[in-house]
Amino acid sequence: MTQQAIRKFKPSAKAKIPAGLFVRLGIGSDEKMDVVASIRAGLAVDVVDKLTEELGLPQSKLLSLIDLPSATLTRRRRTKRLTPHESDRVYRIATVFRAAVQLFEGDPAAARNWLNEPAKALGGNTPLEHLDTEAGAAEIQDLIGRIEYGVIA
Q: DSSP string spanning 59-87?
């Protein structure tokens, strides 16, 4: 979405969270305690495949964002679980994607496009490029909030 389109975008106050994103990914329910327990136990390794599909990214790009080498992913497939630390990084990406889908009133394609488009508020970088760190993810969450309330910097 271009900066001009964002300025014209007026999300409804009742934009809803896409039903079951966390459930589809295997992260747990949208209940915080379920998510925390799932992350601590280590998410099932297939969450990487599911999130790759949801985001419409090459798996190598997602692995780079969560700092998970492909050789490590191969080893994790044998144990069937990610570590809690790896699970937490997957959760970070999923949470931002869910917020972006909510911003675009449940339209995952629009959210994917926005995540991949350079943003002036991010110095010309894409929101996706910021998701490799917790601070970057927080910055994207903040940007989403500013867009929702019409405060575009």
A: HHHHHHHTT--HHHHHHHHHHTB--HHHH
> The dihedral of CA 65, 66, 71, 77: what is its sign?
negative
Q: Is the dihedral of CA 134, 108, 4, 147 positive or negative?
A: negative
**Type of residue found at 4:** Q
Range of the domain at 82: 3-9+17-148
Tens of pLDDT along 2-31?
444 444 444 444 444 444 788 888 887 655
- Model confidence at 33, pLDDT cuts 50, 70, 90, reads low
Residue 153 lies in a domain: no
Joined together, the tokens standing for residue 12 give 């409804």
Quick one: DSSP state of residue 44? B
Position 56 in a domain: yes
Half-sphere exposure at residue 153, Cβ-oriented, CA atoms within 13 angstroms: 10
Residue-wise pLDDT tens digits, 64-102: 999 999 999 999 999 999 999 999 999 999 999 999 999
Cβ contact 135:141 at 8 Å = no
* CB burial of residue 38 (10 Å; 0-12, 13-18, 19+): buried
